[in-house]
Task: structure prediction
Amino acid sequence: MTDTSVEKKGPMLAADGTPLKRSLARALRAQKLRALALIAPLLIFVLLTFIAPIVDMLFRSVENQIVSETLPRTVVALEDWDGTSGELPGDDVFFAAYEDIFIAAEKKLHTRLGTRLNYELTGVSSLFRKSGRGLDDIGEVYQDEFKGLDKDWDKGEPWVELMGSDAFLEKARAWKKGDALPRFELREGMADLLPLTSEAYQDFARFQRVEEEKSLLKEEPWTLVHTMLYEDLKAGDMSGYTGPRAEMLKAADALVDTPDFPTVDFKAAFQDIDKDWLDVEVWQTIKTYSPNYTDGYFLNAIDMQKSPEGPVMRPESEQIYGLLFKRTMFMSLVITFSCIALAYPVAFLLSNLPARTANLLMILVLLPFWTSLLVRTSAWKVMLQQQGVINDVLVWIGLVDDANRLVMINNQLGTIIAMTHILLPFMILPMYSVMSTIPPYYVRAAKSLGATNWTSFWRVYFPQSVPGIGAGSILVFILAIGYYITPEIVGGTTGTFISNRIAYHISSSLNWGLAAALGTILLAVVLILYWAYDKIVGIDNVKLGG
Result:
């Protein structure tokens, strides 16, 4: 009877008549949305300022699209070339490179490409810069011949009548300065009749419309277009063409077929521009770095390089990054242990002094934060030099001979001293926050049970202070491993970190891909060490007080 009455009543209802289960779910969902709205600004801030830069760095370390985007035809032509043969690529590669580099030079992209490839092969940057200026002369041979036949070949409007559709021609003639330039439309059938010329002229038309913002009717085409016209006329038959400018095109076709018409050997033309184009290594470098994504930056970051045979080690004289990584790890650990040795007694003293005295001394600990990092580092440069304050004092008290002053600047010792001083507060503060929570009666109880001062400290007090040491060590080590200002100023050639090299590639050499690869490796090393610390010590044992 009771079960029947429950069934008749149905599910429990809320005050508004909705089922209680549904009402509770709706309330929980609203509560979660409110919580999400509260943390959304912080979440967005972290995504934009922390996660996004890391993702961008990871992408830059493998991104390599500049080669394939700037030399698309050359990359395709090089696919069938065996870079290990020791022979130069065929004429088709030089012809494709002529077209690609010509267009890149007009768009001012060839210098960027040269800079990218110069990271892998020294001298390529100047090679591309010189070629950008010289390739225009190749097409002038054909331009002069066509112009000598008919001056209309050197004017803009006849070319538009030949290559452009009737609709585009009408729009181009109706265009007025200040209006948006019409988009070029190729005449129907022209891509089949003059395929190379059509492609080159469309590139020219796009450049004039987007970059120069000039009407095609008033601009003579590039010499590249004349070169492609010659190639099409040599390979095709124009006798069946009846469209606009048919007579002009047929006359040019007849001219090309004459035996005394001058031609260009593109391989020889490249050699005339710069003999380095006949260096097989240049073409090997272009082919090696033609994929959109590459592991070349990471190989460079570990003192290796890509080659036609695969990854190989760089010459021993060029292996610098492995040494910098080892030096960075070693010196960061030395700085961390130096900070522990100096910070522990200071934190112990602060935690056991009366609050009034401890607060006064804490101001002295925090005082360096009120001074610029650059000023503090520069001060150490003055103090550590051979004619500096420290050496003068050591000579005055007789510990050092005036003729044999200590060399403490522009080396590892100077970096360790300066960085230990700068990072010391970051070790003292976590230690002090943990030590101040250790009950003093624990040590008194140990002594009352017969323990000596050392035993009571080592067996009772020190284990409770280890979480503070762990927190300070992680903080100091991570800060030390990424420092670059202090090592740059006081480290010289033997005291710099890998971070100094990263900064150099970002600000000076502009090799952002290699900088991103070095940064990614450094991040991976830190994460591995963090994981190892968690496995050995336990990250749960790290405390900042409480």
Remarks:
- Residues 18-60 form one domain.
- The longest strand covers residues 304-305.
- The beta strands are 304-305, 312-313.
- Residues 156 and 221 are 7 Å apart (CA to CA).
